Amino acid sequence: MCNMKESFILFLAVSCATSLGHTKGRQTSDSYVVSSPDRPSGPPGSSPMDECDPEMIGFELITGYVFSSPGNVIDSFPGTLMLTDCLDMCQGNESCQSVNYETGLCVLFGSNADILPGALTKSQFPVFTIYAQKSCLGVKPCERAWCIDRIQNHRLTGYVKSHQIVGSRQECLELCLGETEFACRSANYNNSTGDCELSSMDRLTLAGGNAFLASDGHDYMENNCIEEPTKLCEFKKLNGRILKTVDSVHQDVGSVDECRELCLNSPYRCHSYDYGDTGEMVCRLSHHSRSTLSNIQDPYLDVPEAATYELSSCYNVTIDCRSGDMIAKIQTSKVFDGKIYAKGSPNSCVRDVNNSLEFELSMAYDNLECNVRKNGLGRYVNDVVIQHHDKIVTSSDLGLAVTCQYDLTNKSVTNEVDLGVHGDITPALSEEVTVDSPNVAMKITDRNGEDMMQSAEVGDPLALKFEILDKNSPYEIFVRELVAMDGVDSSEIVLIDSDGCPTDHFIMGPIYKSAQTGKVLLSHFDAFKFPSSEVVQFRALVTPCMPSCEPVQCDQEDSTGELRSVISYGRRRRRSTDQAHEDLLLVQSIQITDKFGFDKDANKTALSSESVYINDDNNGLCLNMAGLMIAAILFLAAQLAVIAALAFICQRRKANSKMSPDSVSIPSQLSASRTDSLCKLYEGGYSHSRRF
């Protein structure tokens, strides 16, 4: 183990030097001392697994605990970088009943925590241990490396599908493994009453919720044999942290994408990976994520330049092609609360979904509202969007191209296409809005608040920047009632409420002062759009205050699900006699394209390059300066055309008068005189126009 690459040696050296120190108050634990045969596990050569069919053997894991029984140590294997290898060694040894595993160390025992419950204790710093116990099951387990994850003194509340009284914890987990009426993802077992509760949910499907709670006397068991979606998977990047203990370490992995594929195809439910942070071309996988490590103290190693990629959700999509419609059926790995709709008809061909793992959308061929298109003989296509938020499209959403191809009979085909972003993105123009007294500008910029963004796509890191243009102004500002609007169907969402707090920190963060000056406020957000338009308009009330603005305290949920207090510069100012400034209404627009790749060249809406806000006592008026300039140019061109036509007529009349002067009657002379007067007038006007 200690001959690995230099960048990986330090991390594993910590495991080598300290994995022997898990017993409380001591630097070396006797759990791995082989030379103490004072506590034999039974008669020589006997084992509870001797009579068990190898196909009925399964493992249950307890993360964060270590088994300390020196008299029952069978063997230890330093340099073991795969939890699966450690379990295989135990399964191949008839005397082995349990193992301790850390990244780089595997220890086999001839006893287990059911026989010696006092020997199982929480593992200590700096790493955490995974304890695995071998059992002979009454239900054939799956072919995965282990079948159950167990968490002591915890339970999942609110999602019980069935329950009954059983005689042991193993009977309860066997009921979950053998359940056929529904997909049993987890079970709660009450050690005092024998009550066994089965659930179709687990910590992963309910990630981010509050259903998983500490509960003395309960064992929570999670089914690792459950089949979950593995297609169209999205991973979220967790910067600055990597796990101290992982399940697998792969070397000579060519890229981070290859590491991702190893995770998706692992012999267990892999939920996170990191690449290149513990050594060049080193890929590390784990079945854990933040949602499954809430009961472990400090499971991560802080490394500023490192990152862990956590599985957010996966989708399996099946298209059922029927005689009169096509049905998109979706199965997810995390409860979905949002809607699914046809891309071209987000308001008429839509289905709302409420906290479900499975949902569908039916699109009839004769229903114009669903916009199903015929593409060749017997071929029908449509574009479908899975949207998490009720009103806006975010980077978490998914676009699907679904197809039904008909022959002589109906058939079901599967189309699982992740429509990423390809090709050039049409540049989007943004508008800068300014107001008087003081002059305040609202801009859409990059995350640092520096560069104005000329193009944006759903998910791009952006910032709203509020800035007092006069650097010597005695005022500061705060912002409230920030609203995002859709100009097509008047949809809108409130981003900063009337108290100045973010309504949903996943969409828009709190408003904070720039580190350089109090004249600039920033709020971070990832680009989003409304389903029916590519134009997002922001509207905010900005109030000047002097000499400084007082922030408001807001509660915000952090990455672990806990509430923390943050400040936001959006508190309503205190009225006083020396502060007579009214609220300023700022409006800003940006064109944002989605990531789905549907109809990139269609329905593009052009935005002007500049607009000016004029503040009066009653109402604000937003004038489009580019539009006014274009209208003025067109008007001037029309006038020049009229003047040129009249000048041409005048010249013709003068020429005709010289050729036949005697033939003109008195009325004609009067008429010509009037025409000559007009000619002189327009000739003078034309000449003046040209000079102008």
Task: Give a verbal description of the structure.
This protein is mainly beta and about 700 residues long. It is built from six helices and 37 strands. The strands form eight sheets. Strands 3-5-4-7-1-8-12-10-11-9 form a ten-stranded mixed β-sheet, sandwiched between helices. Strands 18, 19, 20, 21, 22 and 23 form a six-stranded antiparallel β-sheet that branches. Strands 13-17-15-16-14 form a five-stranded antiparallel β-sheet, with helices on one face. Strand 24 and strand 25 form a beta hairpin. Helix 5 (about 625-660) packs antiparallel against helix 6 (about 665-690). The chain starts with 5 loop residues before the first helix and ends with a helix. The model is unreliable at about 1-45, about 410-435, about 570-580, about 600-625 and about 655-690 (pLDDT under 50).
Short description:
This protein has 692 residues and is mostly beta strands. The chain has six helices and 37 strands. It is elongated, with a radius of gyration of 36 Å.
SSE arrangement:
Elements: H1 6-18, E1 57-63, E2 65-67, E3 73-78, H2 83-91, E4 98-102, E5 105-109, E6 120-122, E7 130-136, E8 148-156, E9 160-165, H3 169-178, E10 186-190, E11 195-199, E12 212-223, E13 234-243, E14 248-250, H4 256-264, E15 272-275, E16 283-286, E17 300-313, E18 315-321, E19 325-342, E20 345-364, E21 373-374, E22 379-387, E23 398-405, E24 433-434, E25 440-446, E26 456-457, E27 461-468, E28 476-486, E29 492-496, E30 512-513, E31 520-526, E32 535-545, E33 552-557, E34 563-568, E35 584-593, E36 611-615, E37 620-624, H5 625-659, H6 666-691
Parallel strand pairs: 1-8, 26-35
Antiparallel strand pairs: 1-7, 2-6, 3-5, 4-5, 4-7, 8-12, 9-11, 10-11, 10-12, 13-17, 14-16, 15-16, 15-17, 18-19, 19-20, 19-22, 21-22, 22-23, 24-25, 25-27, 27-31, 28-29, 28-32, 30-31, 32-35, 33-34, 36-37
